[in-house]
Amino acid sequence: MKRFIRANLKAIKKAPRVREQALLVRKMTGKSVAAQLREIRSLRHGPGRLDPLEYYEFGLYDDARFSPSAKREFLGKQRNREIDRLLNNPQWRSVADSKLVTHAFLTGLGLPTPKIYALYYRKGRSLASVPCFRTPEAMADFLRNGMRYPVFAKPSRSHFGEGAFRINSFDREADRLRLNTGEEIGVEAFLLRLAGFPSTKNSGYLFQEPIAQHPEITRICGSCVASVRMLVLVYDDGPRLLRAAWRIPVGQAVTDNFVHGASGNMGASVNPDTGVVERAVRGVGATIVEAEAHPDSGLPLRGMRLPHWEAAVSTCLDAAAALPRLQFQHWDVAIGQDGPVLIELNYSGGHFVSQVAGRRGLLTTEFLDFVRTHAKRFQTVDRVQPAMERSKLLGLLRIR
Amino acid sequence: MKLPRQLMKKLGLRPLMKELSQLRAAREVRQLAGKSVLSQLREIGRLRFGSGRLDASGYYMFGVYDDARFPSHTAKQEVVGWSPRVVAARLNKERWRAICDDKLVFYAILKGLDFPFSEIYAVYCGAERSFGSVPSFSTPDSMAEFLRDGMRYPFFGKTVDGMQGRGATLVRAYDRASDRLHLAGGEEIGVEEYVREYVMRRPTGYLCQALIRQHPLIDQICGGRVGSLRMVVLKGEEEGPRLFRSIWKISAGESISDHFLHGTRGNMVGHVDPGTGVVGRVIRINATGRPSAGAARRLATEVHVHSDTHERVSGITLPDWERTVSLCLKAAIAFPGIRHQAWDIAMGEKGPSILELNFRGAIDLIQFPGVRGFNDAQFQAFFTRYAANGK
Question: What is the ipTM of this complex?
Fold first, then answer.
């Protein structure tokens, strides 16, 4: 019994939310809980390996919207991780894991990426002539006397934008930093707050130049950067853009992360060839709302063409080509005033917003063909994790 | 009668030949050092089953029999027969490996961090891979055209993921009249043949770099040949990076690379004092052919002068030592996932220049000069702390 609970702890924790969703969907659509559970089970064992919450988040209970084969195209988090292990050589991951390494890499290739003003690393790091501070006292002194404002601070390693701050200015008289959210905080208190994030413990903080976003995007979305998550497949003859999802901040958001709809931000599907916004949504599942316009500015989203689109795609693909052993890449690209700016590289996590916003699963024929022809079995040596047999996984990926 | 290696292997004679060669080595050591064969065998047995796993071949290769240089069993035990793979697996995070192995990724990061390295003239790679604004080519014809009309000479060519100098070429000039490239050593090769033989050798690609102009002192000593440093850095958490060992790799003869390869190329290797940059003991292996040629033929000879130029190699102070160490340690901080870092640094006329970072730095290279074993107290403490905690 204990082993069953341990193995299924995550599922058990999610059970109340699943129940809540099931009852809500029954009320909204009339679909019985039993029918929902049957579908959940089928999709759990299907190519996408969705978990129950993902079934609701993607809205797959809606038979009017999704045919059975369309439902099976949706990719879940767990399967996404398995595909990542098949397609991405683990020996190449450090280029994506550390924002500092990514920054150095992109800078070295002459690709546009935000300038870094300072580093705050307890264990010390080097980045050309950028000052690195190892103690709170030294960092505080620099924040008071050496930092350029505004500045964007983020952890070297983080997820969903956790621990990111935009500092607009420093008030010398009050000895307080003014954040983008309107909050004013003392310098030492700010550094204490940074130390409180789990990601700060073993990595550090980057203080970088805020991206000067394209005025058209700022006009619609506000001053917070609204980046595009580009999913790229690296073929033998070069990389190709598979999907693009625009992450649109709303309200006082400091970052554009979608966070499965919990952040309040929006996600939009973008036509990879034209850069035209096809559909913009807020929320997920039963609470999903399709929006024609941005809730703050009221300006239209659907149908707008993202500026500098060709340059953004071209720059992203140039970067992707430089990492040929990471065959499935997720890039965050901002649309700056003068052109695209590469923010960061991930090798997972981009699957969610592109599927929700585009209302289409990732496991299309094109993607499956790519996985079949490019999947390799790599040794996983960092952690003891049995890599799924290639043939077994590929068998499961066949859409029935 | 000398049997071909393959035939010996088929007949199962290789282990026997290896044992016989060790007996020859034992007799030679008895003559040279006065140590009885029985004493040697006793020592070999203790070391073989100790933590260092040093076999007979290593015992002779590293001169462990010499009680003057290894006066105690503790000192002898510090010499190990470990594979670099084992050390790297325990100390280095595998996800950092490509950064070392793939030269284009590595040099891009170095460039972004403003660390000095040899300029890249051109890249040959499939799949639209490039290196910033450096000319890059993905077809043999375009590469050949560039070699004829756009390349700067001389240049050093190497595979993007090559090791130990394999596939490396030093191209001195292009003869337009004959459409041939002049390689180091006097060889000439047609442009297209060069592209086929070397540039297209590996699917990962090929890059062409400027030759590093070595410091005049090094050039004088090595006769214009390469003589770079291997700097081994141990990167701790709180204590930061420390220079653990430094070795001077000295090429000789026709070798375009200073890779030691167990002395099979006639190159030399010398211990360098990490604190002062003074070259200590320099050795040369009296062996030709493959490393498995036999222990007797791999006994190291101490040398004091370069075999070709006869310039003094031991006792000199290497140029720009403080700058070299400083560069190495600063660069080490940028790669925190690699705790055991083996840097190759060139001593250029304008200062030190980074050649590469090895993920699996050779252990035996550090031990060849026969000054000190790898697994000393410092390394043991480091290994215990970081390997025990896993990655």
Answer: 0.88
